[in-house]
Specification:
By secondary structure, the chain is mostly beta strands. It has one domain. Helix content is about 10%, strand content about 55%. The protein contains two helices and 13 strands. The strands form two sheets. Strands 1-3-4-6-7-9-10-13 form an eight-stranded antiparallel β-barrel. Strands 5-11-12 form a three-stranded antiparallel sheet, with no helix packed on it. The chain starts with 5 loop residues before the first helix and ends with a strand.
């Protein structure tokens, strides 16, 4: 056998042996979420929480009896949040492209002033990657901690504006151009597994997820305050989520 084939063969053999001892476990989750946006600009404030839902598949690979690597795919509905621009802004030129597509009469989007709240109604496909660290079993219970990173890809982006004089609060706009294409976040969760059979467990817990990247696109967005020239809004809007972790492993 050629030498360069030995390493792949050894790797396949070791993974096969490990899989026989430490099987892959699958599961599903149906987890309510509470979502909000934060910024690094004290004149742009988080304004409210959105109720969402994570629905997805979970896969775990056990490399020790109580330790595993987990991944999967989630559909996160009802993500996003709301940002309120301070009253002192005399002009807020935001969401120009989607508003210009809908509004055909004056006043123009550039005449929006401060005091309005911009609602981001988002959906994501998420791919988590992390560790699950479990305790030994106490009767039918085991406790766990899950640190993880999550890659999110927006699949739906709609927005609405509260307290804008000429826009109804319930009117929605397509704001895909105002949302960045990727969201990377870190998170941690903790909870309990309850065994209902040798292969099946119910999972419950609480988690927190925080975005690294700026979710809001600031291209051509300007804000104006009294006594100052128009300035580009380069604030960073980050997605935050509190998760009620509910699922089944089998």
């Amino acid at each position: 056998m050629k030498p360069y084939l030995l390493l792949p063969l050894a790797l396949v053999c070791s993974l096969t042996a490990a899989a026989q001892v430490n099987p892959i476990q699958l599961g599903i989750q149906l987890s309510p979420t509470f979502n909000y946006l934060t910024t690094d600009n004290n004149l742009i404030e988080s304004d409210g929480t959105k109720l969402g839902l994570k629905l997805g598949l979970v896969a775990e690979y056990f490399f020790q009896d109580n330790y595993s690597i987990h991944t999967g795919i989630n559909f996160h509905f009802g993500a996003g949040g709301a940002l309120r621009y301070d009253d002192q802004f005399t002009q807020v030129n935001i969401w120009s492209e989607p508003l210009n597509e809908v509004l055909t009469t004056q006043p123009t989007p550039g005449q929006l002033t401060g005091g309005s709240t911009y609602n981001y109604n988002l959906q994501f496909v998420e791919i988590p990657l992390g560790l699950t660290l479990r305790t030994r079993e106490f009767g039918y219970l085991r406790y766990f901690v899950q640190p993880a990173f999550t890659l999110g890809i927006p699949t739906g982006s709609k927005g609405s504006i509260d307290r804008a004089s000429y826009i109804d609060d319930n009117e929605t706009f397509k704001i895909g151009s105002e949302v960045n294409a990727l969201n990377l976040s870190w998170g941690i969760g903790a909870g309990i597994e309850y065994s209902i059979s040798t292969q099946t467990s119910l999972v419950g817990g609480l988690g927190f997820q925080s975005g690294f990247l700026d979710l809001t696109a600031d291209n051509d967005t300007q804000v104006t305050r009294p006594g100052r020239d128009p300035a580009e809004d380069d604030s960073k809007g980050r997605q935050q989520s509190i998760i009620i972790m509910l699922g089944v492993l089998f």
